[in-house]
Design goal:
By secondary structure, this protein is an alpha+beta fold. Helices cover about 25% and strands about 35% of the residues.
C-alpha cells in the first residue's frame, strides 16, 4: 500500500485597483481569475512532469537533443509491452520540439495512416493506440539540451486533488482595490515504475 503525501499547495493572487476596473470596458477581474486558474493548471502539469525521468528505473530512451522520430515512438511502445503494461490508456506527452518533429512524419500527420486531423488543442491524434499530448511544462535535462518526455499508462502516476482550484475574493475599499486569490492543494506519487518510459526531447 502506497501513501500519497498531499504537499503541493499553490496560490495565484490577482490585484485590480478600482480606477483600472472602472475605466475598462471588459471585466478585468474575470479575466484575471481565468489567467490565475491557468497558472495553477500549468503548475499541476509541471509537478507531474517532474516524475517522468524517474520512471523505468530512471532509464531514459533516445538521445538528448535528437529529433523525435517513428523509431523512438516504436521503442517506447515496445518497452511498455515488454513491461507487461496494458495496451489501453497509454499516453505520450511531448513538447513543442517533438511536435515540430512529428509534423515531418507522414505516418503521424496523414489521414492515410489513421485518424484525420493532425494537431488540435494541444492533442495530436491517437497513434498506435496511444493518445499524444503537447505541453510546455516538461522538465529540462540538467546540463543538457532537451527535456524529459514520457510514454506512460494512466496508472503509472497517481495524483490526488485535495482541494480543487478555489477562488477567494477580498474587497479592500481602504486600498481602493480588489484582490482575487486562486488556490489549490494536491499530491502525487509514482505508482507503477515500469508502466512509464521517459525519453529525451530535441530541446527544452
Amino acid at each position: 500500500k502506497l501513501a500519497i503525501v498531499i504537499n503541493e499547495w499553490w496560490d495565484c493572487p490577482i490585484v485590480v485597483d478600482d480606477m483600472t476596473d472602472l475605466q475598462n470596458q471588459v471585466d478585468i477581474l474575470e479575466k484575471g481569475i481565468k489567467r490565475a486558474g491557468y497558472a495553477i493548471a500549468k503548475k499541476m502539469d509541471t509537478t507531474v512532469a517532474t516524475l517522468f525521468s524517474s520512471l523505468n528505473g530512471g532509464t531514459v530512451l533516445g538521445t538528448d537533443g535528437a529529433a523525435f522520430d517513428d523509431d523512438l515512438f516504436i521503442s517506447l511502445w515496445e518497452k511498455l509491452n515488454e513491461n507487461d503494461c496494458p495496451r489501453e490508456n497509454r499516453y505520450l506527452v511531448i513538447d513543442p520540439s517533438c511536435e515540430a518533429d512529428i509534423m515531418k512524419i507522414d505516418k503521424f500527420v496523414s489521414g492515410d495512416y489513421g485518424e484525420k486531423g493532425a494537431i488540435e488543442n494541444g492533442k495530436i491524434g491517437k497513434r498506435y493506440g496511444c493518445k499524444v499530448f503537447v505541453t510546455n511544462n516538461l522538465v529540462a535535462v540538467s546540463a543538457g539540451t532537451g527535456a524529459y518526455g514520457c510514454m506512460f499508462h494512466k496508472e503509472a502516476i497517481a495524483m490526488i486533488l485535495q482541494q480543487k482550484p478555489k477562488i477567494d475574493y477580498f474587497p479592500e475599499p481602504l486600498k481602493h482595490q480588489n484582490t482575487v486569490n486562486v488556490t489549490a492543494l494536491w499530491g502525487l506519487k509514482k505508482m507503477r515504475d515500469t508502466w512509464g518510459v521517459p525519453f529525451y526531447t530535441r530541446k527544452a
